[in-house]
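can u do me a favor
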Protein backbone atom coordinates (compact mmCIF):
# COMPACT_ATOMS: atom_id res chain seq x y z
CA UNK A 1 0.00 0.00 0.00
CA UNK A 2 1.46 3.38 -0.88
CA UNK A 3 1.19 6.28 1.46
CA UNK A 4 1.58 9.13 -1.00
CA UNK A 5 1.22 9.30 -4.79
CA UNK A 6 4.48 8.26 -6.45
CA UNK A 7 6.77 10.78 -8.20
CA UNK A 8 5.03 13.76 -6.62
CA UNK A 9 6.86 14.14 -3.34
CA UNK A 10 10.37 12.67 -3.77
CA UNK A 11 11.56 13.94 -0.39
CA UNK A 12 9.25 11.55 1.49
CA UNK A 13 10.71 9.19 4.05
CA UNK A 14 8.26 6.26 4.16
CA UNK A 15 9.73 4.74 7.35
CA UNK A 16 8.80 7.96 9.21
CA UNK A 17 5.09 7.33 8.59
CA UNK A 18 2.33 4.99 9.61
CA UNK A 19 1.70 2.34 6.98
CA UNK A 20 -2.06 2.63 7.43
CA UNK A 21 -4.56 4.30 9.70
CA UNK A 22 -6.93 2.02 11.59
CA UNK A 23 -10.32 3.75 11.63
CA UNK A 24 -13.67 2.54 13.02
CA UNK A 25 -14.60 1.83 9.37
CA UNK A 26 -11.53 -0.24 8.62
CA UNK A 27 -7.93 0.15 7.56
CA UNK A 28 -7.13 3.05 5.21
CA UNK A 29 -4.01 4.55 3.64
CA UNK A 30 -3.48 8.19 4.54
CA UNK A 31 -4.62 9.47 1.16
CA UNK A 32 -7.80 7.32 1.24
CA UNK A 33 -8.50 8.45 4.77
CA UNK A 34 -8.18 12.13 3.88
CA UNK A 35 -10.26 11.64 0.72
CA UNK A 36 -13.12 10.20 2.76
CA UNK A 37 -13.84 13.72 4.03
CA UNK A 38 -16.99 14.80 2.19
CA UNK A 39 -16.60 18.43 3.36
CA UNK A 40 -19.88 18.47 5.27
CA UNK A 41 -18.39 20.79 7.91
CA UNK A 42 -20.07 19.20 10.94
CA UNK A 43 -16.69 18.92 12.66
CA UNK A 44 -16.09 22.69 12.58
CA UNK A 45 -18.73 23.13 15.31
CA UNK A 46 -16.60 21.28 17.83
CA UNK A 47 -13.07 22.31 16.88
CA UNK A 48 -11.53 24.68 19.47
CA UNK A 49 -9.10 26.30 17.03
CA UNK A 50 -11.86 27.01 14.50
CA UNK A 51 -14.04 28.47 17.26
CA UNK A 52 -11.35 31.01 17.99
CA UNK A 53 -10.05 31.93 14.55
CA UNK A 54 -13.15 31.33 12.36
CA UNK A 55 -10.80 30.63 9.46
CA UNK A 56 -11.63 27.66 7.27
CA UNK A 57 -7.98 26.54 7.25
CA UNK A 58 -8.17 26.15 11.07
CA UNK A 59 -11.14 23.78 10.90
CA UNK A 60 -10.78 19.99 10.63
CA UNK A 61 -12.33 20.21 7.15
CA UNK A 62 -9.82 22.88 6.10
CA UNK A 63 -6.91 20.86 7.50
CA UNK A 64 -8.04 17.70 5.72
CA UNK A 65 -8.45 19.50 2.41
CA UNK A 66 -5.01 21.11 2.74
CA UNK A 67 -3.44 17.73 3.57
CA UNK A 68 -5.18 16.23 0.56
CA UNK A 69 -3.66 18.93 -1.66
CA UNK A 70 -0.22 18.17 -0.20
CA UNK A 71 -0.64 14.48 -0.93
CA UNK A 72 -1.69 15.29 -4.49
CA UNK A 73 1.46 17.37 -4.90
CA UNK A 74 -0.50 20.62 -5.31
CA UNK A 75 0.59 22.29 -2.07
CA UNK A 76 3.92 22.39 -0.30
CA UNK A 77 3.68 21.25 3.33
CA UNK A 78 6.03 23.99 4.52
CA UNK A 79 3.88 27.00 3.52
CA UNK A 80 3.49 29.14 6.61
CA UNK A 81 -0.33 29.39 6.63
CA UNK A 82 -0.54 25.60 6.67
CA UNK A 83 2.07 25.30 9.40
CA UNK A 84 0.14 27.75 11.57
CA UNK A 85 -3.05 25.80 10.95
CA UNK A 86 -1.41 22.48 11.85
CA UNK A 87 0.20 23.97 14.96
CA UNK A 88 -3.28 25.14 15.98
CA UNK A 89 -4.62 21.58 16.14
CA UNK A 90 -4.74 20.44 19.78
CA UNK A 91 -4.97 16.77 18.66
CA UNK A 92 -8.09 16.56 20.82
CA UNK A 93 -10.04 14.21 18.55
CA UNK A 94 -13.33 16.10 19.00
CA UNK A 95 -13.76 16.30 15.22
CA UNK A 96 -13.67 12.51 14.93
CA UNK A 97 -16.42 12.27 17.53
CA UNK A 98 -18.75 14.47 15.51
CA UNK A 99 -17.79 13.14 12.06
CA UNK A 100 -20.12 10.55 10.54
CA UNK A 101 -17.16 9.05 8.65
CA UNK A 102 -15.02 8.95 11.84
CA UNK A 103 -12.18 10.67 10.01
CA UNK A 104 -9.07 10.75 12.26
CA UNK A 105 -7.96 14.33 11.55
CA UNK A 106 -5.50 14.35 14.47
CA UNK A 107 -3.68 11.36 12.90
CA UNK A 108 -3.58 13.19 9.55
CA UNK A 109 -2.05 16.24 11.24
CA UNK A 110 0.63 14.13 12.93
CA UNK A 111 1.51 12.49 9.61
CA UNK A 112 2.21 15.90 8.09
CA UNK A 113 4.36 16.81 11.10
CA UNK A 114 6.37 13.65 10.54
CA UNK A 115 6.79 14.70 6.97
CA UNK A 116 8.08 18.12 7.96
CA UNK A 117 10.45 16.41 10.41
CA UNK A 118 11.05 19.48 12.59
CA UNK A 119 11.13 19.51 16.41
CA UNK A 120 7.99 21.22 17.68
CA UNK A 121 9.15 21.83 21.23
CA UNK A 122 12.06 24.11 22.19
CA UNK A 123 15.21 22.12 21.45
CA UNK A 124 16.41 21.73 25.06
CA UNK A 125 13.02 20.55 26.24
CA UNK A 126 12.78 18.21 23.28
CA UNK A 127 16.18 16.71 24.10
CA UNK A 128 15.31 16.37 27.79
CA UNK A 129 12.07 14.48 27.15
CA UNK A 130 13.63 12.38 24.38
CA UNK A 131 16.18 11.25 26.96
CA UNK A 132 13.35 9.60 28.90
CA UNK A 133 12.94 7.19 25.98
CA UNK A 134 16.60 6.64 25.14
CA UNK A 135 17.97 6.51 28.70
CA UNK A 136 15.20 6.44 31.36
CA UNK A 137 17.59 6.12 34.34
CA UNK A 138 19.66 9.11 33.27
CA UNK A 139 16.46 11.09 32.61
CA UNK A 140 15.07 10.26 36.06
CA UNK A 141 18.29 11.38 37.79
CA UNK A 142 18.58 14.53 35.71
CA UNK A 143 14.92 15.52 36.00
CA UNK A 144 14.83 14.95 39.78
CA UNK A 145 18.02 16.99 40.09
CA UNK A 146 16.44 19.84 38.07
CA UNK A 147 13.29 19.65 40.21
CA UNK A 148 15.28 20.33 43.35
CA UNK A 149 16.94 23.47 42.07
CA UNK A 150 14.61 26.28 42.99
CA UNK A 151 16.35 28.56 40.52
CA UNK A 152 14.99 26.39 37.66
CA UNK A 153 11.44 26.78 38.96
CA UNK A 154 11.79 30.51 39.11
CA UNK A 155 12.97 30.59 35.52
CA UNK A 156 10.20 28.19 34.44
CA UNK A 157 7.58 30.52 35.89
CA UNK A 158 8.43 33.01 33.13
CA UNK A 159 8.46 30.56 30.24
CA UNK A 160 5.13 30.41 28.40
CA UNK A 161 4.06 26.78 28.28
CA UNK A 162 6.07 25.84 31.35
CA UNK A 163 4.51 28.14 33.94
CA UNK A 164 2.49 25.22 35.36
CA UNK A 165 5.79 23.81 36.64
CA UNK A 166 5.62 26.44 39.38
CA UNK A 167 2.43 24.71 40.59
CA UNK A 168 4.26 21.41 40.70
CA UNK A 169 7.19 22.93 42.59
CA UNK A 170 4.96 23.55 45.62
CA UNK A 171 4.55 19.80 45.94
CA UNK A 172 8.23 18.92 45.75
CA UNK A 173 8.70 19.19 49.53
CA UNK A 174 6.02 16.52 50.00
CA UNK A 175 7.55 14.21 47.40
CA UNK A 176 9.99 12.14 49.55
CA UNK A 177 7.25 11.43 52.13
CA UNK A 178 4.79 10.41 49.43
CA UNK A 179 7.35 8.25 47.65
CA UNK A 180 8.07 6.28 50.81
CA UNK A 181 4.32 5.81 51.30
CA UNK A 182 4.10 4.49 47.75
CA UNK A 183 6.88 2.02 48.42
CA UNK A 184 5.01 0.76 51.47
CA UNK A 185 1.80 0.45 49.46
CA UNK A 186 2.46 -3.08 48.23
CA UNK A 187 4.55 -2.25 45.20
CA UNK A 188 6.89 -4.97 44.17
CA UNK A 189 9.13 -4.03 41.31
CA UNK A 190 9.71 -6.91 38.90
CA UNK A 191 7.76 -9.23 41.17
CA UNK A 192 6.46 -12.33 39.47
CA UNK A 193 2.76 -13.12 39.16
CA UNK A 194 1.15 -9.72 39.78
CA UNK A 195 -2.60 -9.46 39.26
CA UNK A 196 -2.38 -5.89 38.00
CA UNK A 197 0.41 -3.79 36.55
CA UNK A 198 0.35 -0.12 37.40
CA UNK A 199 1.71 2.20 34.68
CA UNK A 200 2.31 5.61 36.28
CA UNK A 201 2.10 8.66 34.05
CA UNK A 202 5.09 10.99 33.79
CA UNK A 203 3.45 13.43 36.22
CA UNK A 204 2.55 10.72 38.76
CA UNK A 205 6.13 9.48 38.68
CA UNK A 206 7.91 12.82 38.89
CA UNK A 207 5.59 15.68 39.80
CA UNK A 208 2.45 14.47 41.53
CA UNK A 209 3.18 11.26 43.44
CA UNK A 210 -0.12 11.66 45.28
CA UNK A 211 -1.79 10.47 42.05
CA UNK A 212 0.35 7.32 42.10
CA UNK A 213 -0.43 6.75 45.77
CA UNK A 214 -4.19 7.16 45.33
CA UNK A 215 -4.13 4.95 42.21
CA UNK A 216 -2.22 2.20 43.99
CA UNK A 217 -4.55 2.32 46.99
CA UNK A 218 -7.53 2.08 44.68
CA UNK A 219 -6.15 -0.86 42.71
CA UNK A 220 -5.11 -2.58 45.96
CA UNK A 221 -8.75 -2.54 47.08
CA UNK A 222 -9.29 -5.33 44.61
CA UNK A 223 -6.96 -7.25 46.94
CA UNK A 224 -4.32 -7.99 44.29
CA UNK A 225 -0.62 -7.46 44.00
CA UNK A 226 0.61 -4.57 41.88
CA UNK A 227 3.80 -4.21 39.94
CA UNK A 228 5.19 -0.81 38.86
CA UNK A 229 6.02 -0.62 35.17
CA UNK A 230 7.39 2.80 34.33
CA UNK A 231 9.14 2.03 31.06
CA UNK A 232 8.41 4.90 28.60
CA UNK A 233 5.76 3.68 26.17
CA UNK A 234 6.57 5.96 23.18
CA UNK A 235 3.73 8.50 23.51
CA UNK A 236 6.05 11.52 23.58
CA UNK A 237 7.88 10.32 20.44
CA UNK A 238 4.56 9.59 18.70
CA UNK A 239 3.41 13.17 19.17
CA UNK A 240 6.62 15.18 19.31
CA UNK A 241 9.47 12.99 18.16
CA UNK A 242 10.00 10.41 15.49
CA UNK A 243 7.80 7.46 14.73
CA UNK A 244 10.54 4.80 14.49
CA UNK A 245 11.65 5.60 18.06
CA UNK A 246 8.02 5.53 19.23
CA UNK A 247 7.60 2.09 17.66
CA UNK A 248 10.83 0.84 19.28
CA UNK A 249 9.71 1.99 22.73
CA UNK A 250 6.19 0.64 22.33
CA UNK A 251 7.51 -2.72 21.08
CA UNK A 252 9.79 -2.91 24.15
CA UNK A 253 6.86 -1.99 26.39
CA UNK A 254 4.61 -4.66 24.85
CA UNK A 255 7.36 -7.29 25.14
CA UNK A 256 7.94 -6.41 28.78
CA UNK A 257 4.22 -6.83 29.39
CA UNK A 258 4.29 -10.09 27.46
CA UNK A 259 7.09 -11.37 29.69
CA UNK A 260 4.88 -11.07 32.78
CA UNK A 261 2.41 -13.95 32.94
CA UNK A 262 2.34 -14.27 29.17
CA UNK A 263 0.74 -10.85 28.68
CA UNK A 264 -2.42 -11.78 30.58
CA UNK A 265 -2.09 -9.20 33.37
CA UNK A 266 -4.20 -6.01 33.03
CA UNK A 267 -2.23 -2.75 32.86
CA UNK A 268 -3.72 0.22 34.70
CA UNK A 269 -2.75 3.82 33.96
CA UNK A 270 -3.72 7.14 35.56
CA UNK A 271 -3.31 9.13 32.33
CA UNK A 272 -6.02 9.06 29.68
CA UNK A 273 -3.45 10.26 27.11
CA UNK A 274 -1.39 7.12 27.80
CA UNK A 275 -4.56 4.97 27.69
CA UNK A 276 -5.58 6.38 24.29
CA UNK A 277 -2.06 5.94 22.92
CA UNK A 278 -1.80 2.32 24.12
CA UNK A 279 -5.19 1.63 22.50
CA UNK A 280 -3.60 2.75 19.25
CA UNK A 281 -0.78 0.19 19.54
CA UNK A 282 -2.03 -2.10 16.71
CA UNK A 283 -2.00 0.85 14.28
CA UNK A 284 1.75 1.29 14.79
CA UNK A 285 2.47 -2.29 13.74
CA UNK A 286 -0.03 -2.73 10.91
CA UNK A 287 2.66 -4.09 8.56
CA UNK A 288 4.04 -6.72 10.93
CA UNK A 289 1.45 -9.48 11.32
CA UNK A 290 2.84 -11.13 14.45
CA UNK A 291 3.56 -7.86 16.24
CA UNK A 292 0.15 -6.52 15.18
CA UNK A 293 -1.55 -9.55 16.78
CA UNK A 294 0.48 -9.04 19.96
CA UNK A 295 -0.39 -5.33 19.99
CA UNK A 296 -4.09 -6.12 19.60
CA UNK A 297 -3.95 -8.56 22.48
CA UNK A 298 -1.97 -6.01 24.52
CA UNK A 299 -4.51 -3.23 23.87
CA UNK A 300 -7.30 -5.38 25.34
CA UNK A 301 -5.39 -5.47 28.64
CA UNK A 302 -5.10 -1.69 29.05
CA UNK A 303 -7.34 -0.10 31.70
CA UNK A 304 -7.89 3.42 32.94
CA UNK A 305 -7.97 3.98 36.69
CA UNK A 306 -11.73 4.72 36.83
CA UNK A 307 -12.30 1.01 36.07
CA UNK A 308 -11.25 0.44 39.68
CA UNK A 309 -13.83 2.73 41.26
CA UNK A 310 -16.23 0.65 43.35
CA UNK A 311 -19.78 0.32 42.03
CA UNK A 312 -21.13 2.32 44.96
CA UNK A 313 -19.25 5.49 45.87
CA UNK A 314 -20.36 8.55 47.72
CA UNK A 315 -18.87 12.01 47.52
CA UNK A 316 -20.50 15.28 48.34
CA UNK A 317 -19.57 18.74 47.18
CA UNK A 318 -21.69 21.75 48.14
CA UNK A 319 -20.84 23.49 44.84
CA UNK A 320 -21.24 22.46 41.24
CA UNK A 321 -18.76 19.89 39.98
CA UNK A 322 -17.45 19.51 36.45
CA UNK A 323 -15.28 17.23 34.31
CA UNK A 324 -12.51 18.54 32.07
CA UNK A 325 -12.30 16.30 29.01
CA UNK A 326 -8.80 17.44 28.02
CA UNK A 327 -6.97 14.47 26.51
CA UNK A 328 -5.30 13.37 23.29
CA UNK A 329 -6.89 11.65 20.29
CA UNK A 330 -10.43 10.86 21.47
CA UNK A 331 -13.50 12.20 23.22
CA UNK A 332 -15.58 9.04 23.11
CA UNK A 333 -13.50 6.31 24.72
CA UNK A 334 -14.84 3.95 27.36
CA UNK A 335 -13.24 5.82 30.36
CA UNK A 336 -14.84 9.12 29.24
CA UNK A 337 -18.29 7.55 28.90
CA UNK A 338 -17.82 5.74 32.20
CA UNK A 339 -16.75 8.91 34.07
CA UNK A 340 -19.61 10.87 32.55
CA UNK A 341 -22.20 8.36 33.79
CA UNK A 342 -20.49 8.20 37.19
CA UNK A 343 -20.59 11.99 37.63
CA UNK A 344 -24.22 12.18 36.53
CA UNK A 345 -25.30 9.57 39.07
CA UNK A 346 -23.05 10.78 41.84
CA UNK A 347 -23.59 14.54 41.71
CA UNK A 348 -27.01 14.71 40.00
CA UNK A 349 -28.02 18.35 39.52
CA UNK A 350 -24.68 19.46 41.02
CA UNK A 351 -22.86 18.06 37.98
CA UNK A 352 -22.33 20.76 35.38
CA UNK A 353 -22.24 19.13 32.00
CA UNK A 354 -20.05 20.86 29.46
CA UNK A 355 -21.46 20.32 26.03
CA UNK A 356 -18.80 19.10 23.69
CA UNK A 357 -18.68 22.42 21.95
CA UNK A 358 -17.01 23.83 25.07
CA UNK A 359 -13.25 24.13 25.37
CA UNK A 360 -11.03 21.86 27.41
CA UNK A 361 -7.36 21.76 28.42
CA UNK A 362 -5.01 21.06 25.50
CA UNK A 363 -2.31 18.43 25.90
CA UNK A 364 1.11 19.07 27.39
CA UNK A 365 3.44 20.88 25.00
CA UNK A 366 0.61 22.49 23.04
CA UNK A 367 1.48 25.84 24.58
CA UNK A 368 4.83 25.62 22.80
CA UNK A 369 3.37 24.75 19.43
CA UNK A 370 0.64 27.40 19.55
CA UNK A 371 1.36 29.82 22.38
CA UNK A 372 -1.27 32.50 21.73
CA UNK A 373 -3.95 30.04 20.79
CA UNK A 374 -3.23 28.04 23.92
CA UNK A 375 -3.73 31.12 26.13
CA UNK A 376 -6.98 31.90 24.32
CA UNK A 377 -8.25 28.35 24.76
CA UNK A 378 -7.35 28.39 28.46
CA UNK A 379 -9.06 31.77 28.84
CA UNK A 380 -12.26 30.53 27.16
CA UNK A 381 -12.18 27.39 29.26
CA UNK A 382 -11.82 29.26 32.56
CA UNK A 383 -14.52 31.72 31.42
CA UNK A 384 -16.96 28.84 30.80
CA UNK A 385 -16.16 27.32 34.20
CA UNK A 386 -16.58 30.67 35.95
CA UNK A 387 -19.87 31.41 34.13
CA UNK A 388 -21.26 28.12 35.40
CA UNK A 389 -19.89 28.91 38.86
CA UNK A 390 -18.18 25.55 39.04
CA UNK A 391 -15.48 25.29 41.69
CA UNK A 392 -14.45 21.63 41.60
CA UNK A 393 -13.09 20.35 38.32
CA UNK A 394 -11.86 16.80 37.83
CA UNK A 395 -9.39 15.96 35.07
CA UNK A 396 -8.28 12.79 33.30
CA UNK A 397 -4.56 13.50 33.76
CA UNK A 398 -2.33 15.20 36.31
CA UNK A 399 -0.88 17.60 33.75
CA UNK A 400 -4.34 18.93 32.87
CA UNK A 401 -4.95 19.58 36.58
CA UNK A 402 -1.62 21.43 36.84
CA UNK A 403 -2.29 23.55 33.77
CA UNK A 404 -5.84 24.33 34.86
CA UNK A 405 -4.77 25.32 38.37
CA UNK A 406 -2.17 27.65 36.88
CA UNK A 407 -4.88 29.36 34.83
CA UNK A 408 -7.26 29.45 37.84
CA UNK A 409 -4.58 31.16 39.95
CA UNK A 410 -4.76 34.27 37.85
CA UNK A 411 -8.26 34.13 36.35
CA UNK A 412 -10.57 32.35 38.80
CA UNK A 413 -8.90 31.62 42.15
CA UNK A 414 -12.10 30.17 43.67
CA UNK A 415 -11.82 27.04 41.51
CA UNK A 416 -9.60 24.02 41.95
CA UNK A 417 -8.76 21.20 39.58
CA UNK A 418 -7.74 17.72 40.68
CA UNK A 419 -7.15 14.34 39.10
CA UNK A 420 -10.24 12.14 38.93
CA UNK A 421 -8.56 9.43 41.03
CA UNK A 422 -8.84 11.71 44.08
CA UNK A 423 -12.59 11.28 43.94
CA UNK A 424 -11.99 7.82 45.33
CA UNK A 425 -9.64 8.93 48.12
CA UNK A 426 -12.31 8.96 50.78
CA UNK A 427 -13.82 5.61 49.91
S1 LIG B 1 -13.92 15.59 8.67
FE1 LIG B 1 -15.91 14.53 8.76
S2 LIG B 1 -17.31 16.02 9.72
FE2 LIG B 1 -15.49 17.14 9.02
S3 LIG B 1 -16.01 17.93 6.97
FE3 LIG B 1 -14.95 15.97 6.70
S4 LIG B 1 -16.59 14.44 6.63
FE4 LIG B 1 -17.51 16.29 7.48
S1 LIG C 1 -8.22 17.26 16.61
FE1 LIG C 1 -9.27 18.92 17.77
S2 LIG C 1 -8.16 20.81 17.24
FE2 LIG C 1 -7.54 19.23 15.75
S3 LIG C 1 -8.89 19.53 13.99
FE3 LIG C 1 -9.87 18.01 15.33
S4 LIG C 1 -11.23 19.17 16.70
FE4 LIG C 1 -9.82 20.63 15.74
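np, heres the sequence
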Amino acid sequence: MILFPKNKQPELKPNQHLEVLETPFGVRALYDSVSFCNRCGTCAQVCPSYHLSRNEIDSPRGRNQAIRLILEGKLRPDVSVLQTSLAGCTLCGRCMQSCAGKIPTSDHVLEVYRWLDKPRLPILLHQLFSLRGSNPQKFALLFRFILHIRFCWNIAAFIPGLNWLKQASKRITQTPKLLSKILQAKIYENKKNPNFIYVPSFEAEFLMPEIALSSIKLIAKKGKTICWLNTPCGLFEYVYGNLPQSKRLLRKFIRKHQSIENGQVPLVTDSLDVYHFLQKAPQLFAKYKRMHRQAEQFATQVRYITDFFPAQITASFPDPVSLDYGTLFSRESHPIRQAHILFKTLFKQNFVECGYTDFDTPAFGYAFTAGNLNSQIMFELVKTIAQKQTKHIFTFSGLCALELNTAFNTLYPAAKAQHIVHLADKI
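The chain has 22 helices and ten strands. hope that helps!!
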